[in-house]
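Internal ticket - ligand job 669, WTA:
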Amino acid sequence: MADAAPNQPPKAPVVAEAHEVDTYHPPQKMLEKHPSKPHISGIEEYQQLYKESITEPNKFWGRLARELLTWSKDFQTVHSGTLEGGDNAWFLEGELNASYNCVDRHAFKDPNKVAIIYEADEPNEGRTVTYGELLREVSKTAYVLKQMGVRKGDTVAIYLPMIPEALVAFLACSRIGAVHSVVFAGFSADSLRDRVIDAQSKVVITTDEGKRGGKLIGTKKIVDDALKQCPDVSHVLVYKRTGADVPWTKGRDYWWHEEVDKWPSYIAPEPVNSEDPLFLLYTSGSTGKPKGVLHTTAGYLLGAAATGKYVFDIHDGDRYFCGGDVGWITGHTYVVYAPLLLGVSTVVFEGTPAYPNFSRYWDIIDKHKVTQFYVAPTALRLLKRAGNQHVRNEMKHLRVLGSVGEPIAAEVWKWYFEIVGKEEAQIIDTYWQTETGSNVITPLAGVTPTKPGSASLPFFGIEPAIIDPVSGEEIHGNDVEGVLAFKQAWPSMTRTVWGAHKRYMDTYFNVYKGYYFTGDGAGRDHEGFYWIRGRVDDVVNVSGHRLSTAEIEAALIEHSAVAESAVVGVADELTGQAVNAFVAIKEGNDATDALRKEFVLQVRKSIGPFAAPKAVFIVPDLPKTRSGKIMRRILRKILAGEEDQLGDTSTLSDPSVVDKIIAVVHDAR
Ligand code: WTA
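stdout (structure tokens):
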């Protein structure tokens, strides 16, 4: 089954009520404490540049690519291909190297400039890494990978927590033209195994253990479990993080510190073609199998650098702190690539916002004089709920407060602005996806007026379209609702799904011909501002983590007692959405609490703890049409307490199951 079958419009998004909202302008105080002035003088200049980026994209992007990236060979063709053809390519004939752009060019200028501010799980255990040191570390690690047989175009699996070596690993891969495939270190052994096999990685990089929120994570053990079924993995490089005693497979496992010691501190970067792959990152779609989203070198890097510069208004000397994990796209683009491409210091935070207490983020911001902070609303909801007494910090260098990954409610937005930012920093609600590579609908800090809850206006080169999901036609004009698509290609868009180009086409380009389909519902208000409503496909967003209901269902069915299951996302005050599972069990099993617990464990084991259902309902049967299609809509309505609005249930093969399910849900509450 394709993610969204072509010609079959997705479900209509929820239409929000029209309401009056305040507009906030970039705060005067933010401009006063600015080291110089924002890169763009104001909304008029944005509009002018935006217009150029849409009407003359080759001129616009050609200029930016030469300004923001360093090329070993200049490109001739800025762009080729079409959205319909799914064959977009940028900066052809050009050659460059990602690690050179992130490290060397800054190290040559000022080797003592801080590249990485590592804030360890325990406060005061961190350290800094300068650009000069980073160049040495990256070079040595690149040698190690080469020695392990990694060649240009090969994929390397990275299963690392938030430590500086994660960034070193990314850059060591790109230095030799290898493709990193990072797996979030919260994924289970089964998930890691699937990704290692799908990407055909022969080398895996990990730690002995990880440390997060005062707890230890057995990363090496998880890798060992995963690799039992990955006979093609020849080498595992293990960074010693805690010094724990870990099992060792001789001839396969190597200590990072011992290996890097053997090599010189400089290796020349390998120039690659603009369109050579930079990385793979697996993400969830509507089907059970995660997709390996592929990004290529030049276009992706340009998206990261351009949004870093204009969206976050990064200036030389800034200290940038993105709280996202390197295991997700936010960490890729905004912990690693954007700040390093622009040659500023990036904070790598290993811990959680609640450890050792709820002031941790704010302490880090004060301690390192952070200028831009970027985090998901789920963390803000947690901290807001914990109470304002934890936000005593001054944070007087903050100019930009970013939000990412899920809609931010107006009251959380205002709390972020008033309590965290003291009305001296601008809130930017940035909308984007793993597939878009970098921010696509977002305010530009210091420039764009904002409205709480709106991601505001398109970034350069992004031409949004609101489409009527029923007719499939674009809806022009303002004050409209529909699904969100883009009608022009942009440099950092994903180029393919690893090993599944048809899936790529069906998911993004065959749904509405001539458009890239985002999978999100959106509105455009009377002033042309965009309001993201959330996914219209079977993707749920739990604490900013993107999960596929089909993937969780596939995990549940692996349990021997499960006959069938249906997973839906429900609104949750803290996590945005929560996973709820309905399970029909096989005969001979009883609906006990113990069994429900086993189902939760099954999901933790197959995917990872972050995907665990918050509630499991064991039901006699699922609501299905006569052709066997599960009506998840009915389940969502029941959970929302809207039993009186189930609509027409006569098309169900057995309408009586509805009352039985309602009874189960009521009993559980
Ligand atoms: C959602 C995360 C509302 C959206 C960068 C999208 C958002 C999915 C926002 C991508 C935002 C991301 N407001 N919703 N500012 N940003 N989303 O691939 O549903 O993990 O399609 O990338 O997150 O999730 P992904």
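Auto-summary: The chain has 19 helices and 31 strands. The radius of gyration is 24 Å.
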